[in-house]
């Protein structure tokens, strides 16, 4: 377990300031953690067998002199693709970020840029129609369909400033940055996965675990009365409550076999980010076996219906037929696991990949019976807002 000893604001901001491209950073409501340098890479061609490989890597690092080995990094949506995991040389932690106002907020991109939607809006809405047809004919209850924005800035994107902007405006969520450059990449331009996710996949501390699935969303409004009405409609929406229940039920079933106790609220609550309202259910449990690791729990849950659909395989196959791009690390997970098995894994949403002047944003929406293509398009547009605001676009 990581012991966070510093709770003063100066150390929190220092960790954020000390981030450099190539580092791992995760700022969560529990703590901020920064990993620098590479003590060892966790080499894997795909994510199958990842639990044993991570245990072996942690044991080997301990034997070769690492005082506190922790595996950190990102795992893709598709387990057949390669994860990006390392054991950093240096690990620093601090209490959760507590900044009462946005400090040092500046634009992170040029004022001149090009944006290309992939797919374009009409094609995305046609994909939603195909998803609804699959629900009607293929016994799928839910499918999550996503789209992306490709942004080219006239100048290099300031990854560090973007990370700070996201962290200062996302103190109740999970801000992250992970180097996802290919190991064999010869050029010097790193590729960074960066985001501000509202969703905890699972965390483990000793025998205690927490999962916090989100499903069912509404865009925020600038007008306070309209914003309050959006939240009220979300809590009363039969379509969104059904979508949420599908996700919570799947998470509950996945965790039950691991737990002595599992508390699942009967009705969802509501949470907000800068851009969205979400239906939320916090699930708490006590493990039967304290040696079960956070990564084992995360792999048992992934992919939840919140980012894939249900039933999983049917939804995943339909996603591959409809979406015109490879998700990569989007809707995968980002996090860490230490030698005791404790850790924290976040659903990789509200995110982008950055390489030099190029940035690819991602956003998705859950499709169920009753979904409307134009509403799902609007939802993805609102979800892009988290990253676009961080960039200053």
Topology, element by element:
Blueprint: H1 9-18, E1 24-27, E2 32-36, E3 40-41, H2 50-63, E4 70-75, E5 84-87, E6 90-94, E7 113-118, H3 121-137, E8 142-153, H4 159-168, E9 174-179, E10 192-197, E11 200-205, E12 208-212, E13 214-219, H5 224-236, H6 238-256, E14 259-263, E15 269-272, E16 276-280, E17 283-287, H7 294-301, E18 309-310, H8 312-322, E19 333-338, E20 343-347, E21 351-355, E22 358-367, H9 373-391
Antiparallel strand pairs: 1-2, 1-9, 2-6, 3-5, 4-5, 4-19, 7-8, 8-18, 8-22, 9-10, 10-21, 11-12, 11-20, 12-17, 13-16, 14-17, 15-16, 19-20, 21-22
Helix pairs in contact: 3-9, 4-9
Could you describe the 3D structure shown?
The chain is of the alpha+beta class and 393 residues long. Helix content is 31%, strand content 31%. The protein contains nine helices and 22 strands. The longest helix is centred in the middle third of the chain and has 19 residues, at 238-256. It is globular. Pfam families: Chorismate_bind (PF00425). Its EC number is 5.4.4.2. This is isochorismate synthase.
């Amino acid at each position: 377990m990581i012991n966070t000893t510093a709770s003063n604001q100066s150390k929190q901001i220092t960790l954020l300031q000390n981030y450099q491209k190539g580092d791992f950073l995760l700022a969560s409501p529990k703590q901020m953690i920064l990993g620098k340098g590479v003590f060892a890479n966790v080499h894997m061609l795909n994510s199958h067998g990842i639990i044993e490989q991570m245990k072996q890597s942690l044991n080997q690092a301990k034997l070769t002199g690492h005082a506190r080995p922790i595996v950190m990094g990102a795992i893709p949506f598709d387990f057949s693709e390669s994860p990006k995991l390392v054991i950093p040389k240096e690990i620093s932690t601090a209490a959760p970020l507590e900044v009462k106002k946005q400090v040092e907020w500046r634009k992170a991109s040029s004022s001149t840029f090009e944006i290309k939607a992939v797919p374009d809006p009409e094609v995305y809405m046609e994909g939603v129609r195909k998803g609804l047809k699959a629900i009607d004919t293929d016994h799928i209850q839910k499918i999550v369909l996503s789209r992306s924005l490709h942004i080219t800035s006239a100048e290099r994107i300031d990854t560090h400033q973007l990370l700070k902007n996201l962290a200062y405006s996302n103190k109740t969520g999970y801000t992250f940055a992970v180097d996802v450059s290919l190991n064999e990449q010869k050029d010097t331009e790193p590729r960074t996965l960066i985001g501000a996710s509202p969703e905890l996949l699972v965390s483990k501390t000793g025998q205690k675990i927490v999962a916090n699935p989100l499903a069912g969303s509404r865009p925020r409004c600038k007008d306070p009365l309209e914003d309050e009405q959006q939240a009220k409609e979300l809590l009363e929406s039969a379509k969104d409550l059904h979508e949420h229940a599908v996700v919570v039920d799947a998470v509950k079933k996945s965790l039950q076999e691991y737990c002595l106790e599992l508390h699942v609220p009967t009705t969802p609550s509501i949470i907000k980010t800068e851009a969205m309202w979400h239906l939320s259910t916090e699930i708490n449990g006590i493990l039967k076996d304290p040696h079960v690791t956070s990564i084992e729990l995360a792999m048992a849950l992934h992919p939840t219906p919140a980012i894939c659909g249900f039933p999983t395989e049917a939804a995943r196959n339909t996603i591959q037929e409809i979406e015109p791009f490879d998700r990569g690390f989007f809707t995968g997970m980002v996090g860490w696991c230490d030698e005791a098995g404790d850790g924290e894994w976040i659903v990789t949403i509200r995110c982008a990949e950055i390489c030099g002047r190029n940035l690819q944003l991602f956003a998705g929406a859950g499709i169920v019976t009753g979904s409307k293509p134009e509403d799902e398009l609007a939802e993805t547009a609102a979800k892009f807002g988290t990253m676009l605001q961080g960039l200053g676009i």
